[in-house]
């Protein structure tokens, strides 16, 4: 099992940027694909972005494509989400997640992820 701790959330005006970080511990971080999900008030949790174990392959939700960038530093056991051109509809709690099995491709499916962080709030004001 891996422990995940997100940071970097906060309040920003529309058009601004934030970078989220997710520090991992407890297992070999560099062997597992990772992802970011988010949950807005009154809505179900949704996929945002995911990345392969090596960082060589990524996937994004259409709503964030071209604005958000997922990356990882396996030497630092850290996952990142760079968020640019933020919109009010990006307001949500953002969760870092680790896939159930090592290696493999990025995934957008929640059942494929078995480890979750506690979440970090991102609020975008228009």
Quick one: biggest sheet? 7 strands, mixed
Give start-end ranges of low-pLDDT stretches: none
Structural class designation: mainly beta
How many helices does DSSP assign?
Answer: 0
What is the general shape? Answer: globular
Number of strands: 11
- The separation of the N and C termini measures 39 Å
The oligomerization state is single chain
Radius of gyration: 13 Å
Helix content: under 10%
String of helices and strands: EEEEEEEEEEE
Q: Mean pLDDT, rounded to whole units?
A: 96
Beta-strand percent range? over 45%
Describe the structure.
With 126 residues, the chain is mostly beta strands. 0% of the residues lie in helices and 49% in strands. It contains no helices and eleven strands. The protein has strands at 3-7, 10-13, 18-25, 34-39, 46-51, 58-60, 68-73, 78-83, 92-99, 113-116, 120-125. The strands form two sheets. Strands 2, 4, 5, 6, 9, 10 and 11 form a seven-stranded mixed beta sheet that branches. It has a four-stranded antiparallel beta sheet with strand order 1-3-8-7, with no helix packed on it. Strand 5 and strand 6 (58-60) form a beta hairpin. It starts with a strand and ends with a strand. The model has no long low-confidence stretch (mean pLDDT 96).
Brief synopsis:
By secondary structure, the chain is mainly beta. Helices cover 0% and strands 49% of the residues. The chain has strands at residues 3-7, 10-13, 18-25, 34-39, 46-51, 58-60, 68-73, 78-83, 92-99, 113-116, 120-125.
């Amino acid at each position: 099992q891996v422990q995940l701790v997100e940071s970097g959330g906060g309040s920003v005006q529309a058009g601004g940027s934030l970078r989220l970080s997710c520090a991992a511990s407890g297992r070999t971080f560099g062997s597992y694909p990772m992802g970011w999900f988010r949950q807005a008030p009154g809505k179900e949790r949704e996929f945002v972005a995911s990345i392969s174990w090596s960082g060589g392959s990524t996937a994004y939700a259409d709503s964030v494509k071209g604005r958000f960038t997922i990356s990882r530093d396996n030497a630092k056991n850290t996952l990142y989400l760079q968020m640019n051109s933020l919109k009010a509809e990006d307001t949500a709690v953002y969760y870092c997640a680790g896939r159930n099995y090592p290696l493999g491709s990025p995934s957008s499916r929640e059942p494929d992820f078995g480890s979750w962080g506690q979440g970090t709030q991102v609020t975008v004001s228009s």
